[in-house]
């Protein structure tokens, strides 16, 4: 039986997925993608999990697509199997927040994988890039679409057309990354944030994530309408009543979420 390409762990209400192809710098083989998506689906179904962390190892987060596998694909093969579309679709279907923890390189498909996450924490040594143009192709897992939304057209165009990388600090400055930390503090900080998110009402967290993600797709009027409807929907939750009762209690107390 072949070795798993991911490592799955738990820490209270946080599910942890670690990419585990160190010799290949966690390149996105078909096997790794399938195992990653199954782990995400499993955590998303698990009511004891409130948030998910996705990370790599000391060598890096992910070097991108598996070049050997990709080199064997013809246009017809790639087109007929919608190569890498399952990765995008799989992340879009996850209701729970995914925090990407980037230590080292996140290049090509690895940078795209990072951008599929909802929040990014990066080590000071992390680097991001879309070097596909140096291989005679273009980003194919959302790079041309998500990068422009994250950092703006000019910067995204520069990265994609030159293949040049940016540092973690640059990524933070342009809004791609939420926080940059020393490598030794990175995972514990991300775990603390994931634990904080997981401590809140699960349906409310899911609604907030949906509203923010849809903001990238909708015009302002439609986005405000969706936000209003989701906001009103929270009024029907037991957790909404509990949150208000806990706040108004004398003395004020911590809410006891029922996740319903």
Overview of the structural elements:
The chain has helices at 30-45, 67-71, 75-80, 85-92, 109-116, 143-151, 153-162, 168-173, 183-198, 202-215, 220-234, 238-248; strands at residues 6-11, 14-19, 51-55, 60-62, 98-102, 105-107, 119-123, 127-129, 166-167, 179-181. The chain is built from twelve helices and ten strands. The protein is 48% helix and 16% strand. The strands form two sheets. It has a six-stranded mixed sheet with strand order 1-2-3-5-7-10, sandwiched between helices.
Q: Strand portion, in percent?
A: 15-25%
Number of strands: 10
Which strand order spans the largest sheet, edge to edge or round the barrel?
1-2-3-5-7-10
- Uncertain spans, ≥5 residues at pLDDT below 50? none
Question: What portion of residues is helical?
Answer: 40-55%
Order of helices and strands: EEHEEHHHEEHEEHHEHEHHHH
The overall pLDDT, averaged over residues, is 93
Count the DSSP helices.
12
Supply Rg.
19 Å
Biggest β-sheet strands, sense, barrel: 6 strands, mixed
Outline type: globular
> Which structural class fits the helix and strand makeup?
alpha/beta
**N- to C-terminal distance:** 41 Å
List the topology elements.
Blueprint: E1 6-11, E2 14-19, H1 30-45, E3 51-55, E4 60-62, H2 67-71, H3 75-80, H4 85-92, E5 98-102, E6 105-107, H5 109-116, E7 119-123, E8 127-129, H6 143-151, H7 153-162, E9 166-167, H8 168-173, E10 179-181, H9 183-198, H10 202-215, H11 220-234, H12 238-248
Parallel strand pairs: 2-3, 3-5, 4-6, 5-7, 6-8, 7-10
Antiparallel strand pairs: 1-2, 8-9
Helix pairs in contact: 1-4, 5-6, 6-7, 10-11
